[in-house]
Amino acid sequence: MHHMPLIHSRFKPNEMLHPQPTFLFRLLVAFMCSLFMLPAFANGSGLFEIVNADFRVENEMWVADARADLSLSAEAERALENGVTLTIQYQYTVNRSRNFWPDKLIAEPSENIELQYLSLSRRYVVRNTDTGEQESYATLFSALRQIGRVRDFPIIAQSAIDSDERYYISMRVVLSREKLPGPMQVLLFWQGDFSLESEWFRWTLK
User: Fold this and answer.
1) Do 158 and 61 touch, CB atoms closer than 8 A?
2) What is the spatial distance between Cα 63 and Cα 78, in angstroms, rounded to a whole number?
3) Which residue, of 108, 124, 171, 201, has the greatest Cβ tally within 10 A?
4) Cα gap 188→192, rounded to integer Å
5) Which regions of the chain are under pLDDT 70?
């Protein structure tokens, strides 16, 4: 009988967040098996929602402060527990309103946050891929609560906004499939409940 190799604590945090291809293949197999084992009546569809958001000028930049309620679907949580790193992405758009033409897209920044469960330590690791900041939490609830807090995220330079024009910012939060391994993207194409995204939250620049 073959045994799965143990994951020792000598791995650095970044190595744990970016496992080797062979390890990813084993995770994919385990995840596929777990999907087939899901009962038809499994509940927990998950929900992403922007509760509130505010945008202000800080150091000549328009920045975002926001709070989101995040809960994973049963499928996403099962993938996480099987070692799949999930990416939660905040997406923003800045548009200039136009009367007789479609609104013009001015900027489209995004913020990517990785979430991983480490089975040996039973900790949930949250890593901002843009800043490199990383923290771990004892519960999934605590990890998602932290991910749901946006503080001082830069959107667009104040100088790029013409005071004589009308602008609005939109934002949403999604569970990104683009960051998953290729074979898993194909598999999850058939797993509709894995997708999670909030409604767009719209705010007019003043």
Assistant:
1) yes
2) 34
3) 171
4) 7
5) 1-44, 178-194
How far apart, in Å, are the Cα atoms of 18 and each of 21, 84, 108? 9, 10, 26
Q: Which residues in 49-88 are b (16+ Cβ under 10 Å) and which e? A: ebeebebeeeeebbbbebebebbbbbbbbbbbebbbbbbb
Which of 173, 181, 169, 170 is CA-nearest to residue 205?
Answer: 169
Two tokens, residue 72: 């994973």
Task: Give the largest CA-CA distance in the chain.
Answer: 73
User: HEC profile for the chain?
Assistant: CCCCCCCCCCCCHHHHHCCCHHHHHHHHHHHHHHHHCCCCCCCCCCEEEEEEEEEEEECCEEEEEEEEEEECCHHHHHHHHCCCCEEEEEEEEEEECCCCCCCEEEECCEEEEEEEEECCCCEEEEEECCCCCEEEECCHHHHHHHHCEEEEEEEEEHHHCCCCCCEEEEEEEEEECCCCCHHHHHHHCCCHHHCCECCCEEEECC
User: Which of 64, 65, 115, 58 is closest to 89 using CA atoms?
Assistant: 115
Dist CA 34 CA 147 (whole Å)? 26
Place of tokens 């830069």: 154
186: left (phi over 0), alpha (psi -120 to 50) or beta: alpha
CB of 65 closer than 8 Å to CB of 56: yes
Rounded to two decimals, the pTM is: 0.74
